[in-house]
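Help! Submission page says 'invalid entity' but I think these are all valid:
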Amino acid sequence: MENKLRLFNSLSRKKEDFKPLTDGHVGMYVCGPTVYGDPHLGHARPGITFDIVFRYLQHIGYKVRYVRNITDVGHLENDADHGEDKIAKKARLEELEPMEIVQYYTNRYHAFMNALNVLPPSIEPHASGHIIEQMEIIDKIFENGYAYEADGSVYFDVEKYNKKHPYGILSGRNIEEMLANTRELDGQDEKRKPYDFALWKKAAPEHIMRWKSKWSDGFPGWHLECSAMGAKYLGETFDIHGGGMDLLFPHHESEIAQSMAANEKMPVNYWMHNNMITINGQKMGKSLGNFITLEEFFTGNHDMLEQAYSPMTIRFFILQAHYRGTVDFSNEALQGAGKAYERLIKAFGRLDDINPAEAGDLDMEKLRNSCYDAMNDDFNTPILIAHLFDAVKFINAAADGKTTMSDEQKNALQNIRKDFIVDILGLDLETSETVGGSGLNDVMDILLDVRKKLKEEKNYAMSDFIRDELSAKGVTIKDTKDGTSWEM
RNA sequence: GGUCUCGUGGCCGAGUGGCUAGGCAGCGGUCUGCAAAACCGCGUACAGCGGUUCGAAUCCGCUCGAGACCUCCA
């Protein structure tokens, strides 16, 4: 298959032709959630963004190994020496085992990602299951002279590393600036420099998540897990590493430093970062407390939500913006996305009932190529969707008898539906409005039959009564030349 | 304060040195007993001020505004 895929590499800050290390194979690692709370809209963004990457790479013929981790240890509340582990803190507050917290929120995360039609990754490793691998990296970093120990904790010597390799290569900073601008935090006395980061932390006596090591009973630093698990499952250098833009520094920067310090190899060829979802122009984030959970979106149970929004509406909303731009949440925008999504799905749903005739005025090959061009240009889903709406107009016009469609065109559109809407965008062809209960169909047929007779008798009062009453129950009646249809 | 990004019509959002995405909402029309849906048509937007250019929303400079990262955050 011809491969013209270009993607924006955060490392070079340019779009580059995509060339995997091994022909036909792609290794991709994406930073997954820290499972100490319910997933919110912000978590849906990387989930969906890299789901698209995963789906598209497979669609164009690659065998993809997609690793998305679960962070269940080592992620501290802050970077001070005495910061508390997020999982451990939640466990203490809820009086549960840390692994109960981890399991509970991992299950929740899976359920919500599944609802959003996000495919599960090939491998989903837990940080806590790779303590030994993380220790081995620390050993290597020690051997190469880029780590130092202080009271049972181990830190990465950024200054020394920077003499040989640029620390800041990914995020575009330099060490002098960082030194000048790093804020003073409490309890950083163990670190030689404020920008040094922990590879291993000695656990305080009350800390329940702890592992034995040659340095102390403790736990690994946050950045280490991705270096360890990425290398383990994808190799010391792999193709794509993804995550949210907010992880670019210091998390990914430190990942590069650790891997270089341990292996003298750049761990990743292409870095991809999705932008943030904003709310009132500001980043939706845990620390800001301005997040709305996915469950709240699905149920509508939140002060800022005017209604519930279906998972597919959320997915479509996110796909209508390019992944590197911010996307601003608002009820108006979400409602618009919901309507657009339904129009798209309904139109493609009408396709199968169209009787082929003369070819109409839409170039299928051009359309299909345009769809591929959009995706090949750094996964430009909004452009892809715009092209799909060209097809929507054509299908609706043909279904209304205002133009005609050839058998070839019909087949081409059915293929586009399968390839782009279902396989690549991962949208569900069933919307809430197109799903009808099977037993209900017969009853509705009777009811509509009665209404038809009433209309023939020009008893519009009664026929409208039926329509209005059904409408009140969420059933919409549509009269067309070919008869009456209904949807819930 | 440092580094960086962005500012597009009522709203959301692509794009880009000349061929004026798309969606939602709105208006007019077709269809209909009426409505809904669908279809057709319409609004000529690119923060402001300068500059480069035959030509800029797109390049450059300045001003204003917003945001991200620099601490945990997807």
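Support: the input was valid. A stray whitespace character was the problem, and the output above is from the cleaned input. Chain A has three domains: 6-274, 278-424, 438-487.
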